[in-house]
Structures are given as structure tokens and as C-alpha cells.
């Protein structure tokens, strides 16, 4: 999509997290470590799933794709935020701002749909175990991942279609460390009430549908697990608890955002940091610490790497 800027504004000023130089220097080191840990943690899960044949199952195929999205989610704005901590002039071009909006909603929308696909995978595994491998074939898993990306792209493109042509003729300060769509829309030189409703409807509807599907799926799964009295119940509950924890971490901030979508609160920046940095960091930790198969596979990958260094 070609970004055509017909407005006076050619760049936006990002106010960031703080004006204090000492605090910004401290945040530079903190977020550099957190960003590196998020990328390496998700990359470790992807490599573990690829290299360990025991993890070549639908659940871990979907998990590796979730890790890829989380890695992208952590990367679309965090590196610039880290660099801006060392810069006095925190600006971003019009095209760069539109790109951040696009990628934020692509990755956010895709992850929501992928979480629903992962819930469906657990529903089939627990409620219809005898038909699991037939229903959740590699082709079906690939289609589910493709659909999640397609919905994410369409969802984001629908936002960008009207945002890119808005007239920005003066105010250009965004009170965040990246171009957040509601904050950018408010800078347009026209009455944005209708646009704000469209944004809320678009994002809110997708979030609500995904959240309700997840709620129904996990309710049915938990009811099925409760009725079962087999040795696999504890393992199923352990896997489910990891999934539910990730869902809560993802949708918790979204619920706050959509209750007050166009009101500014001091906590807004914390939610933005949590969504773009901490969620991608916590997801691999949750799946690694609460999943015996992943922990064993990580150990094997580490031992294989250590053994190859000794051979060398």
C-alpha cells in the first residue's frame, strides 16, 4: 500500500516515557535487556519446535507461530523506543508512523485469531482425542495460521485506509513511545468523532468475537476435563493453565483500552509497554516453565549445543 501524505505534517514527535535524562538512560539499559530476552526467548521456542521431532505436533506448530508473532510484536516499536532514549529529538516520519500503526494491528489481530486457533486445537485434543490427528492435520494447521495472518492484515488495512488520508495540518505530538492509532487520529484537523467510533467498532468487534470464542472453548474444555478421571487430566490442566494465562495477559490490557478508548490516563503508557514488551517476554516463559515437553526439548537442544562445542 502506497502511503500518500496530503497534509502539512511530515513527521510526528513522540513524547516517550520520560523527560528525565537520568531515567531515560536507566530505561535504555532495562528495555535493551527486556527486548533481547523477549526476542531470544521466542526464538528459542521456534528453534526448539523445529529441531525436536517430539514437538512436531499441531499444538507446538501453533505455539511456534505464536512465538514468531510475539517476536514481531516486540520489534515493531521497541528498538526505536530504545534508540530514542539516547536522542533529544524523538521524531518519526509520517510514513514511519503509518507503518507502526499498520504492523501493530497486523500482529495484534493475528495473535488474537491464533489464540482462538490454539483453543480450538486444545478442544479437539481433549474433547475428541481419537480424531485429533485426523482433524488437526498439517494442512488444517497451516490454514488456521494463514487465516490468522489474513484477518490481521485485513483488520489493519481497514484502519490504515482512512488514517493515511486524514489532514494533519499542525499538532504533531504523540504522547507515547510509538504511533498509537487513537492518539494519532486526535491530531487530525477535523472532527474525528465518527472515525473514533469506527476504530472502536473495528478493533472492539474483532476482540470481542475472539474473546467470546475463547471463553466458550475453554469453558467446554474445562467441563470435559472435570468429567474425565484419567491420568492425563493433570497434564491437560497444566497445558490449559498456560494457554489461559497467555489469554488473560493478552486480553487484560485490551479490556482496559476499549472501556476508555479515547481518554488519556497515566496508566496508558504502562499498558503500551506491557503489550509490546512484557507480553512477548512472558509468553515463552509461561510455555517453557509450565510445559514439561518444552522444558525437556530445551534441555536436549542445550545439551546438543554443549556437546557439539566439546567435539569441536
From TrEMBL:
A Pfam entry, by short name: 7tm_4
- What residues form the membrane-spanning segments? 25-47, 59-78, 98-120, 140-162, 205-225, 237-259, 271-289
Q: Where is the G-protein coupled receptors family 1 profile domain?
A: 41-287
Q: How does it sit in the membrane?
A: Multi-pass membrane protein
Location in the cell: Cell membrane; Membrane
Q: What does this chain do?
A: Putative odorant or sperm cell receptor.
Superkingdom in the source lineage: Eukaryota
- State the UniProt keywords alphabetically: Cell membrane, G-protein coupled receptor, Membrane, Olfaction, Receptor, Sensory transduction, Transducer, Transmembrane, Transmembrane helix
Q: Which Gene3D superfamilies match?
A: Rhodopsin 7-helix transmembrane proteins
What protein am I looking at?
Olfactory receptor
Chief subcellular location: membrane
- Which InterPro entries does UniProt cross-reference here? GPCR_Rhodpsn, GPCR_Rhodpsn_7TM, Olfact_rcpt, Olfactory_Receptors
| Protein's UniProt keywords contain Transmembrane | yes
Q: Which family does it belong to?
A: Belongs to the G-protein coupled receptor 1 family.
Amino acid at each position: 500500500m502506497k502511503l500518500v501524505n496530503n497534509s502539512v505534517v511530515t513527521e510526528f514527535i513522540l513524547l516517550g516515557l520520560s523527560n528525565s535524562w537520568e531515567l531515560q538512560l536507566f530505561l535504555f539499559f532495562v528495555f535493551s535487556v527486556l527486548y533481547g530476552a523477549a526476542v531470544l526467548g521466542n526464538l528459542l521456542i521456534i528453534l526448539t519446535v523445529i529441531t525436536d521431532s517430539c514437538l512436531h505436533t499441531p499444538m507446538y506448530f501453533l505455539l511456534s507461530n505464536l512465538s514468531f508473532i510475539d517476536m514481531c510484536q516486540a520489534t515493531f516499536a521497541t528498538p526505536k523506543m530504545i534508540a530514542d532514549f539516547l536522542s533529544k529529538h524523538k521524531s518519526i516520519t509520517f510514513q514511519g508512523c503509518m507503518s507502526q500503526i499498520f504492523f501493530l494491528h497486523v500482529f495484534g489481530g493475528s495473535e488474537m485469531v491464533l489464540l482462538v486457533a490454539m483453543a480450538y486445537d486444545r478442544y479437539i485434543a481433549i474433547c475428541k482425542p481419537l480424531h485429533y490427528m485426523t482433524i488437526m492435520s498439517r494442512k488444517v494447521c497451516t490454514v488456521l495460521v494463514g487465516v490468522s495472518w489474513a484477518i490481521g492484515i485485513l483488520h489493519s488495512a481497514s484502519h490504515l485506509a482512512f488514517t493515511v488520508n486524514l489532514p494533519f495540518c499542525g499538532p504533531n505530538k504523540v504522547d507515547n513511545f510509538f504511533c498509537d492509532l487513537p492518539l494519532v487520529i486526535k491530531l487530525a484537523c477535523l472532527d474525528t468523532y465518527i472515525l473514533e467510533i469506527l476504530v472502536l467498532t473495528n478493533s472492539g468487534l474483532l476482540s470481542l468475537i475472539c474473546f467470546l470464542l475463547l471463553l466458550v472453548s475453554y469453558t467446554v474444555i474445562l467441563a470435559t476435563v472435570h468429567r474425565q478421571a484419567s491420568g492425563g487430566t493433570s497434564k491437560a490442566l497444566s497445558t490449559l493453565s498456560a494457554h489461559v494465562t497467555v489469554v488473560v495477559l493478552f486480553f487484560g490490557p485490551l479490556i482496559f483500552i476499549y472501556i476508555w478508548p479515547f481518554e488519556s490516563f497515566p496508566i496508558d503508557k504502562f499498558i503500551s509497554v506491557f503489550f509490546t514488551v512484557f507480553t512477548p517476554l512472558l509468553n515463552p516463559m509461561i510455555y517453557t516453565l509450565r510445559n514439561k515437553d518444552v522444558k525437556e526439548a530445551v534441555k536436549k537442544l542445550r545439551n546438543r549445543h554443549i556437546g557439539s562445542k566439546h567435539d569441536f
